[in-house]
Specification:
256 residues, 6 strands, globular, alpha+beta, single chain, 13 helices
C-alpha cells in the first residue's frame, strides 16, 4: 500500500507549489436547476437522555466519520478535502445550517469521507483523523478555518525545499509536509505532540483507509470535492451558487 501511496504523491507533487490551492476542487461550473417546492420538515426526533444528536459520532465501515442519529431517515455522505477551498466555503456557510436544522433534529446523519488530493492533504488528514471520531469534527472545522493562512505558508515555501521533501523516504515525507504547512502547533495544541504526530503520519492502517475511501469514491463516480450522496444517490452541485442552496432542497425532498 505504501508503494501505491508513493506513486500517488509523485503524481501530485507538482501541485504542491501554488496552483492546487487556487484551483476549483469541483469542476462543475453551473448549478443544476432546482424545481423542488418548499415543504415543512418532519418533526424532530429527540436524542436519547436529553442529549444532542450532534454529539453522537462514530466510524462507518467505509472509514468515514459519522455524526447524528444512526437511524435518521436521510443519510448524507460528503466527500471533501482539507486543501479544497470550496469545501472550506461549505463548512463555513452550509455546515452550521445542516448541523442545527437537520443533524441536531435527528433527521439527517452526516458521514464525512476524506477524499485526499495532494501530499499536504494526506498529511493533514492523517493527523485530523488520528484521535478518532470524538475529536474529528471539531478539528476538521478548525482546520478549514486555518486553510487560507496555511495556503500562504505553502505558497511561500522554498521550491527547492519542496523538491527535497519529495525525494525523502516515505516515512519522512509526511512530517515534512506538515512542517511546510506550519500546522505542527495546531495539532500539538489538540492533543498530538510531535511524537504522536510522527506516529500518526506513518500509520499504515490509516493510510490504507484513505486509499480505500478513494477506491469507493471512484466506484461511486465521485469526480471532485465537495461532492455529496443523499441516501446513496450522487448529487450534482456546481460552483455557480452557494452549495448549501443547492443541497438543502434535495435534503428536504428526501425527507418527504
Amino acid at each position: 500500500m505504501m508503494k501505491k501511496l508513493k506513486i500517488g504523491l509523485g503524481a501530485v507533487l507538482l501541485l504542491a507549489g501554488s496552483s492546487f490551492m487556487v484551483s476549483a476542487c469541483h469542476k462543475t461550473e453551473k448549478a443544476p436547476a432546482n424545481s423542488q417546492q418548499e415543504a415543512a420538515l418532519p418533526a424532530a426526533i429527540p436524542a436519547p437522555n436529553g442529549g444532542s444528536w450532534t454529539d453522537v459520532v462514530s466510524v462507518s465501515p467505509e472509514g468515514g466519520f459519522v455524526m447524528g442519529n444512526p437511524k435518521a431517515p436521510v443519510s448524507l455522505v460528503e466527500y471533501a478535502s482539507f486543501t479544497c477551498p470550496h469545501c472550506a466555503d461549505f463548512t463555513q456557510e452550509g455546515f452550521p445550517k445542516l448541523r442545527d436544522n437537520y443533524i441536531a433534529k435527528g433527521l439527517v446523519k452526516l458521514e464525512f469521507r476524506n477524499l485526499v488530493r495532494d501530499p499536504f492533504d494526506i498529511a493533514l488528514t492523517l493527523l485530523a483523523r488520528c484521535r478518532g471520531a470524538e475529536t474529528f469534527f471539531p478539528i476538521a472545522d478548525q482546520l478549514f478555518q486555518e486553510q487560507k493562512p496555511m495556503f500562504e505558508r505553502i505558497q511561500n515555501a522554498d521550491k527547492a525545499d519542496l523538491q527535497r521533501v519529495a525525494g525523502l523516504p516515505q516515512d519522512q515525507q509526511m512530517a515534512e509536509y506538515i512542517r511546510l504547512t506550519g500546522m505542527n502547533p495546531f495539532f500539538g495544541n489538540r492533543g498530538l505532540p510531535t511524537s504522536a504526530q510522527n506516529k500518526c503520519l506513518t500509520d499504515q492502517a490509516a493510510i490504507k483507509i484513505l486509499m480505500d475511501i478513494r477506491s469507493i469514491a471512484d466506484k461511486q463516480n465521485v469526480t471532485g470535492t465537495p461532492m455529496f450522496l443523499i441516501n446513496g444517490t450522487l448529487q450534482e452541485v456546481g460552483i455557480g451558487s452557494p452549495i448549501w442552496d443547492q443541497l438543502e432542497p434535495a435534503l428536504k425532498a428526501a425527507l418527504q
